[in-house]
Amino acid sequence: MDFIIFIVLMILGYGFGTWAERRHYKSIEKREMQYQNLPTIALKHPLPQPGRVVKSQLATGNVVISVDYFKRFLAALRNIFGGRVSSYETLVDRARREATLRMKESCPGATKIINIRLETASLSKNTRKGSIGSIEVFAYGTAITCK
Amino acid sequence: MLITNIEMIPGRQIVQHHGLVSGSTVRAKHVGRDIMAGLKNIFGGELKGYTELLTESRKEAMVRMKEQAKQMGANAVVNVRFSTSSVASGAAELYVYGTAVTVQ
Amino acid sequence: MEYSGKLPTSNVNVSKRSPLQELCVLLGGLLGLSLIFYLCLGWAVDYSIQHISPEEENDLYALMKFPASEEGEASERTLAVQALLQELQKCAPLPYQVSIDVSESKQVNAAAFPGGHILIFSGLLDQMSSENELVFVLGHELGHFKHRDHLRSLGRGLVLWVMSLFLLGPDNDVGNFLFSALGVADQTHSRQQESAADEYALEVLNCHYGHVGGATRFFEKLRDLNQTPEILKYYSSHPSDQKRINDLNALAVQKNFRVDSVKPWAISTKQTTKKMGHPKG
Question: ipTM of the predicted structure?
């Protein structure tokens, strides 16, 4: 009986997970295209630009994304054999890009965002060692508006 | 109150600094969010409940930090950094810290 | 300073390999290793069983507790069954004493517990229409003792559990999956044990009466009572009733056993006749 439940969960996880992931990536790519003219850099000093600084504020964006059952099982298998855990790669990639996009969205009208930092934290649903339930990525930087 | 995460406020001059200020909050999730998280752990996707929870917590931590800076007589906080740590199962502590300064 | 905003053309942070392919490869490797380990386990347990004497085995069982029937004076029927069992020990020699208890219950079942205890339910006794059927059931349980099935199952289960705990840690997704997958595989082993016990019972029946009439009658009754579909038989710890009937018939032919008329079972809770015949050759 356990076995049947397991198979069902795997199929559900794979199906829904892949669909959600594809949808999310489409949305990310679309928004990145929109924001590609907003410079976002990790440098601390604002590079010289024409105009005077009018406003500066802290821009933040965060997102919490969870893995599906299929990915978790794959990662557990990897735990035995070692190697690159490719199932989690898409997870952190999506979360990072989504958080930076939200950060950009939080400061409308900004000219550039400098000193962006990313903080990643893993939230596990149960405190099981070696298993990640979901991760949170928090992006913050200083948004500068020039005129 | 101005907040930045670089070492100065662009376009302004720092005249005085007041030392380290910080704000922290410990938040726990409630059962409803947990159930959604449980489902999402099978299907994958964004956990909106948790996202909101953490956003609010950070906002509250920032408010506390600004409050502390105001009490010290500052009007800006520079070089702000964030830190998250889980203190108990289901509860996370959010910590914001920066240098309180007076700018003109 | 000029800013030129261009997006990267491809996502370098993800692997190109399909997750399904990865799953197949990893799972295949894991199942292959588990299969090898499982087979070795079977051989290792069989080997070590030979080196444990029945006395040591019984000492082990003395540490465990097993259910006993209700206290009180044994009924006429219980005494009759116990006497029958004592008779059968001539045909099924075991290095220790075997005892039997009757439990009042509608269940149609009998169980062999480690240490030489048999528990038989009155529901099963009610279904008996001949003494031969009862002898077959008792012989089956004695077969479990003879083949030391309890020790075998105990050993396998223990080693499997300890290994999975050791290698993968408690509460591991993969560990639980492996354990339930191997549990399904272990049912095959359990069915083999049951078939072996059936074969032993046939031998005991032949030894006691000189013929094997009535061996399959009980299963025929059960088969007509239960309507479990054949598909579920893979998950069952016992072979299906029809299969047991077929196997018994094939065995009887193979070993050239005679079939003769059966002996009626005259003991019920109402009657108090002491009609307990002795075996005839």
Answer: 0.81
